[in-house]
Amino acid sequence: MIHTIRFLSAFARRAAGTILVATLVATMLPFAICGRLDAQTWGERLGYPSDKRVLILHASGAGLCYESNAAVESALADGSASSAAVMATCPWFEDFAASAAKRAEFDVGLTITFTSELDRYRWTSVSPRSDVPGLIDTDGYLRRSVAELAYNTTPQEVARELDAQLQKARAAGLRPTHLTCHQGVVFARADLAAAYLEAARRHWIPAVVIELTPQRLREFHDDGLPIDNEMLNLIANYPLPKIDDIRLLPPGETYEARREAFLKQVAELPPGITQFVARPAVESEALKRLSSDWRQKTWDRQLLSDPKVKAFLAEHGVMLTNWREIMSRFEGENPHAKPRAESSDLPTVEAPRLDAPAIESPPAP
Length: 365
Prior knowledge:
Elements: H1 2-16, H2 21-28, E1 32-34, H3 42-45, E2 53-62, H4 66-77, E3 83-86, H5 93-100, E4 108-112, H6 146-152, H7 155-171, E5 179-181, H8 190-203, E6 209-211, H9 214-222, H10 229-236, E7 245-248, H11 255-268, E8 272-278, H12 285-290, H13 294-305, H14 307-315, E9 319-320, H15 323-333
Parallel strand pairs: 1-6, 2-3, 2-8, 2-9, 3-4, 4-5, 7-8
Helix pairs in contact: 1-2, 4-5, 7-8, 8-10
């Protein structure tokens, strides 16, 4: 987990400059977090062997451009990626959706998108812009930064646009297996996070949520990224399945260095479910103009399909899973789970606090 904290912290600071610490935390967390006081991993809770490392190899960025679509489709088709997500606001959404809708076996989620950060390639809301004015900048596009979005929008606009993006995906023939949030913008404010997680509960589609133990909470705090108790308590009551960790594919100066860094991280993982996020794309002159980190994206594509990576995972007994399987296991283990349950039906728990003692073992049954 500390790899994720430090890498994303550095990335956020480079990208955000003087954005407030609270917004940096949100930018760093495109994944919700939640606390539990027992030591059982989500892998164990969902019925995976207790000693197994279980990976979700997640290809993000579908819908952004042709180059992303081609790479994500290929990775899903040949099994190099076990899961993916598409952005309904982006210009190439319809192209990806038309292909993915024909492949029911694909595990495809929806990346809920409230920002449009690229310099020369922008997108706007699915909702009429007059219905979500706080999401829209003076050029008519979604706002460029987490800070700008957090300062201007309301939870009502977030909920309205989220539902519009989900409706667009369903109208295109997709049935999203999970939700992610582009740049983690909803975690800049507790009321925006509440709107996002409430939508996940209401539609009964799991958002990508990682478990935050007291130890991990202290790691965030020690790294200068504290998370307030209001946010923790909000997310602690999120009722859908979670995972144990999430990481971006590690950076590297060369492809070989990047691959070795990834394999080292996998080898050092503890048991449980970890999602590795890749942003694969096919190399082209258009991609080079579109994205300053185009080389990393082409390396992501190469890494997912690398025979040495596949052999390593097999030799080390790493299991692959996806969000459809996770939800199936969750509902199988929780037959009384209530899709679209009323909020009052859900139990309330308290999140761990920084001054809470670390729990070394689960409480006696």
